[in-house]
Design goal:
Blueprint lengths: L9 H9 L49 H67 L6 H4 L12 E5 L6 E5 L5
Antiparallel strand pairs: 1-2
Amino acid sequence: MSSDNKVLSQEEIDAMLSGGSSDGGDSSDEAEPAAPPAAAAEPAPVAVAPAPVAAAPAPVAAAPALPDETREMLGRMSERLETLGAAMERIAQLERGLTETNAAMRLMHQDMQTMAGQVQLVSSRVEGILSNLKATLGYRAQTTYVCASCQTKGEVAAQVKCTHCGQDNWWGWWPSK
């Protein structure tokens, strides 16, 4: 029988089963006549493989006892892993807090920009009011007026008249008694 891998035809298989060979590997000059095929009335016996028997699980050998040094090292590693897990959870909490803080900071920045615009508006209005106030007759009279006669500073009053009834009155700052 040859050892090359080739597909055999049904004739070649029948010839092999009957004892002949058609692979050309026969070294004799004369080929033996092939045996006549078996009678069609009787089928060839079929070999049935026995049903597989479930194998019992092999007994597991007990794990060899670990040396004390190895057990201690495993214990330390376990503690470090727990610590690492707790640290990673804390980092995740801090990252969530940082995200929330960043969002709040963005909102505060927007609010600050809005308020800065409002402050600029109020500031420009105050500047206009001060400019108009400086143009009035008595502006800063209390802080800048010095009497030419007695050299008293800041005690000044002006006569004012009611434009409705014509009554004269004095308005200003007098010395405390």
